[in-house]
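Re: beginner question about structure tokens

> Can someone show what the tokenized structure looks like for a real chain? I only ever see the sequence side.

Sure, here's an example I had lying around. Input first:
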Amino acid sequence: QVQLVESGGGLVQSGESLRLSCAVSGSALFINNINERRWYRQAPEKERELVARIHRGGGTIYVDAVKGRFTISRDSARNVVYLQMNTLKPEDTAVYYCNVATTYGREFWGQGTQVTVSS
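And the corresponding structure tokens:
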């Protein structure tokens, strides 16, 4: 199994920044075969959406709403995934979840961290 623990959420004002972290631990069998690392978010009364992802080869993809403001990165040596969020907007308010997908087809989720952006 794999455990994911997010941190870094909080309450900020519009225009400010936050950096989310996701520490990945657990079975080396799965960790060594992570194919993609992702950040999702879910706002109240909305469906969970994929915000950003980084492939094991380093390629990244972002949802249009965060392009140019958010950056996903990883520290493979420490098994940590980051989401740098700049120029935050009230519509970025959501619970942010870390997710990893392995080459075995398994996915693992963190418990989520709340991000609230006030106007």
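Each token stands for a local structural state, so reading them left to right follows the chain. The CA atoms of residues 3 and 27 lie 9 Å apart.
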